Amino acid sequence: MSSIKGIIFDYGGTIDTDGIHWGELIWEEYQTAGIGVEKSTYRDAYVHGERSLAKAPIIEPTDTFRTLLIKKMALQFGYLRANAPHPTLSKEKEAEVALNCYKRVTDTLEKTRAVVEELSTRYPMVLVTNFYGNMPVVLKEFALSGYFKEIVESSVVGLRKPDPALFALGVKALELEPEEIVVIGDSYRKDIYPSATLGCNTVWLKKVCWAEEPVEPGYAPTAIIDTLTHLPEIIGKL
Length: 238
Hints:
By secondary structure, the protein is an alpha/beta fold.
């Protein structure tokens, strides 16, 4: 019988993309749209966009995920137009990439939502995420409201992964001991390692990563999967 009594989920790169890092997913859609920039230049634009979103209140608490993607693409394309001008960096292409990324998420959630729903009938669950202050709106947009006992969102609580204190808030919300909890996330550095230092069990959703993430000695993930559909079976064996 499983010793797990509660679950902490990451959101971005985990529930919404099933293990594909957002930087890589957007790059795939750049390729599909025929955006003529080098990947190294794109990576600079991606990092610029993420840092801009983290530093300034660009995303409003009422913004949907569709609106979030439009704002994210505006930051990336604006950076690229200023630093690596190319004819393909049109407003039309900017909108195309945003729309296609949104469709990727809606398609993926047809599969991952079922996993979240199934697990919610067996365990109390908390969401711990680096996000922009609009997580409740996004969960409602994608029919994910009601599955989580609490949302611990970085921009709301003033902490960011990989700070273990963010996961400690998730543990507290579940009112369980760390060893009774399993944490699921797509990043070793931001999800697996910090929660493991608290004594939680961990499942690393490892599929398409942004960069190599070496495992710290003594803090290996409890399990590794390449799709959330394997999660219910894995948790049952922990």
